[in-house]
Amino acid sequence: MKVVIVGSGYVGLVSGACFSALGHSVVCVDSNEQKINLLNSGGVPIFEPGLDELIKTNIEQNRLAFSTDLKTSLRGADFAFIAVGTPTRQGGSEADLTSVYAVASEIALSAEDGLVIVTKSTVPVGTGDAVEAIVRTSRPDLVFAAVSNPEFLKEGSAIDDFMNPDRVVVGCDVPWATEKMKMLYEPLRAADAPIIHTGRSAAEVIKYAANAFLAIKISFINEIADFCEAVSADVSEVANGIGHDKRIGRAFLNPGPGYGGSCFPKDSLALLATAQSHTVSLRVVESSIAANDARKRGIGRRVSSAFGHSVRGKTIAILGLTFKANTDDMREAPSLNIIAALQKMGARVRAYDPEGMEQARHYLQNVEYASDAYNCVEGADGIVIATEWKEFAALDFMRIAAIVSHPVIVDLRNILDVHKVETAGFELHRIGSPRRSETASIQAAPRLLRPKVNGQGEHSSAAHGSIRPVSNSLALQNRYPIKGLA
Ligand code: UGA
Q: In what order do the strands lie in the sheet with 115-119?
């Protein structure tokens, strides 16, 4: 089948490459000539693991091409996908649909009978009706259908999400177009992917509801993490404990510095705006947005408190800049809030990210960029893990301990091995963990009260420099009685 995808951004490129890998003949169209030239010369404008290889293979197999010419590309096409951006409207919170409508008008000019126009862009409910009206007005006699087929691709694992989806949602109210959509996705259905057929409006709502729900889950666990800190519980144990309940599920229960990226913040706001325009309150969604905003605003304070509330004149090393790992995307990245707050408090910021530094330069000022993680932390008064890149968990912390000025780490993603890092002599601050000083006090207390054995005893834990005095341990003992403590 011939598939034309309009918009060679993240969603368009990944979808185009994947449809071609399923055996369809795909043309990705974009009005940005520079981008199309880059793609035609073998380059890929975004970082997504595996995408360059997939594009290369399918170009070689003559199943994938790139063009700026929509009119020619639409000749003989079965599908025209709209995959352009829907950013937040300037000065508002609703999605800006200018590009979607412009593309719909352009498709209408060259569409042939039997074309299925599919919206993949994230759009508010009712957009399919508007797209249909635009095409119908322009071409009253054209035989076509307007379908909603939202994407559920996560940056960093988008190809796997496309090829092994939890579900494919096809929102279509026209039987012949539904049959065509079934043929398009037949290779995935044959591989057992659930294909869910819904009405068009339901599909549009599903996309926003899914993102809003995941955002709510993250905001929820972030607040539970704060609660865990206050009551000396470990949030990862809590997340595992509740996540084993199939009704809850363990995914997206990792606490952190607040969710970012181009989707959750924008889509939660847009959902709220659409609901408000229908005079419906979505209080839970509203709270999740407020909780995430507060978290991101407060994250600088949280970091500076780990460094003794004073970072003026200190050098803070930020490991990780992107909004999550395995992407170069800096949109709404929590690192932006952290760095702005630290700079405002007078800190010098040095940063390193495996993929995001080029993008970061467009967002940040007065940041010194390091060539690798070791170079970043050299002489630093504190280290912040802001993104969960695997390579940070694998660092040699003994080596790092020897080159930092002060051995304090704030792990905002809970990716570091506590034992490894503390053995190297670091004071480690995590999200939603019992304060290390309290844990250490609990462990150290029996030794403190016992006579020294083999000349050891009180010293080993105290080496962390964060052990509470015995009196504090006793205060803790009163709150949480520990067997063996007098
Ligand atoms: C999200 C959805 O997960 C995709 O299903 C959807 O297709 C996509 O938006 C979209 O609408 O296009 P994405 O923004 O790429 O994908 O990234 P996620 O992996 O969902 O992460 C979003 C944010 O939540 C990140 O800042 C991440 O660090 C944070 N997060 C995620 C947590 O803080 N904790 C978690 O447990 C999971």
A: 64-67, 25-29, 2-6, 79-82, 115-119, 144-148, 168-171, 195-198
